[in-house]
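Predict structure. Chain length: 293.
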Amino acid sequence: MKHTLFILSITLLFFIASCNNDGDDAQPLKNLSLNISGLEDLGSAAIYEGWIMVDGAPLSTGTFSVDAAGKLSKDKFSLNASDLDKATAFILTVEPSPDPSPSPSDVHLIAGDFSGKTADLSVSHDAALGDDFANTAGKYILATPTDGADNNEKSGIWFLSLAGGSPAVGLTLPVLPTGWKYEGWVVTGGQVVTSGKFTEVNMADESAPFSSTLAGPPFPGEDYLINAPTGLSFPTDLSGGTAVISIEPEPDNSPAPFVLKPLVGSIPAQAMDHTTYDMTKNLSSFPVGTASK
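Prediction complete.
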């Protein structure tokens, strides 16, 4: 009987010790809270992921999606309290879904440094796009140089200026970090159609799927003459439409313009070809917010 009681006592002591050890090893948790506006639904091919910088290295805070109204699927994330207390910055990235890598993608959307318990998030942080785009400006003309002179001249858009009498750079845009490209667009016939992606404002863009056979000018732009998307007919008349410059993630998660649209221009209803028109800054489209710990 004594032997049995001894074994039971040892077992009880071991159980208590184990429980105490478990309690000592458990790490306290704290919530990171996000309050972000201006994000868009990424669809099924991409997802948002947050990161905190701890001892100079990124640590994932978790992923979330956004619905059509811009509401986050999750805005509180339970993290190791010690890590969160040491966090110096928060970064929001766009990641592929599913994501094959445990590291952040190059597509850094907004970021901010913690001051006390709060970080103000914007695209201008060095860990995001690194510019507030306050000096952005744009000009464009309507013309179709790829099918010769005086043919369908209102069916093409080129982001250049003729104000000085000869073609010149029409866009004032900062150099983008890795993970981003610019893209031109027109809205015509109720549809949004690309004019091509680019990284340099004084060079032709990456593609010309709708242009004809002659060479275009060495600036971003497109003639809408062939291969019209379903629902449109080319050539067309872009008068009364809209010109847009967006900033797109690379790789791109969607054939539609991304939420970042720094320049927008209403094409006059009575537009003239080979006439320089101005675009307007549209910085209100950029997401902003806070991260709180």
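Summary: Residues 106 and 196 are 21 Å apart (CA to CA).
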